[in-house]
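Table S2 (text version). Query chain:
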Amino acid sequence: MKRPGSATVASARKRLERQRPQSRPPRRLTARHEVTERVIDGFTVFTVMPRRGGVSDGVLYLHGGAYVAAMAPQHWSLVSRLADAGLRVDVPDYGLAPRWTHHDAYPFVIRAFQELREELGAGRIHIAGDSAGGGLALGLTDALRRDEAEGPDSLLLIAPWLDLTLKNPDIASVDDPWLSRTVLNECARAWAGGTDPDDPRLSPINGTPVGLPPVHLYVGTRDIVLPDARLWSQRATAAGAPITLTVCEGAVHVYPLVPAPEGRAAAAEIVAELAGDGR
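Corresponding structure-token output:
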């Protein structure tokens, strides 16, 4: 396996050219749960619900993949576990770069969130996201606040990509075995679609952390997004936002999705938290 440092701009651009198609729920998920879909402005929202029993809360889940990759098996696995816990999970299949950009994604995910909230009511709606999806989740929450619209009742962020520029100097000291700044910079350029990458919709670290709901952020110490996760959490806490930051020693990018002991433990905690166990 090549180390991230071996990536070049040319190889990163070639990877973008080999983009995979949008995702579909795997057969094991459709066999286990009730899965429906609806289309908003040409993009699909998958709704995953338990086959038996009522629904407690709703989760809008925004997947990672550097804005260029579709839902992976580990994403669907977490969605399935959330449905097992009695949650309705809406998965907006937003368009991927380079064909699509954040200009297309924001109107879509805003409507998907608002429809979920209208159906289930206030006090029951959460947004969760990992990596790029975590950045989009926070950007979406900030966009709703700026539009003076009702936002989520909580945020669950797994290693969110908070700054497309990756300019934090502390990143250089992180030993991330998976992610390459060279590759991510090309993904960021494609997703930005000509917009300044410091725009809060692209880099929510530059947003205003006022009026946030409770936020739980998970990140490992071998994750390229760790420095920005710490910086944003400090800023948000100083602004009075209710932030819980869980840092796992030695863990890699999006570790709650990884089939390792620390990943399984974190995933179980995330499911329990979103399902409201102990509330």
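Notes on Table S2: Residues 102-120 form the longest helix (19 residues). The radius of gyration is 17 Å.
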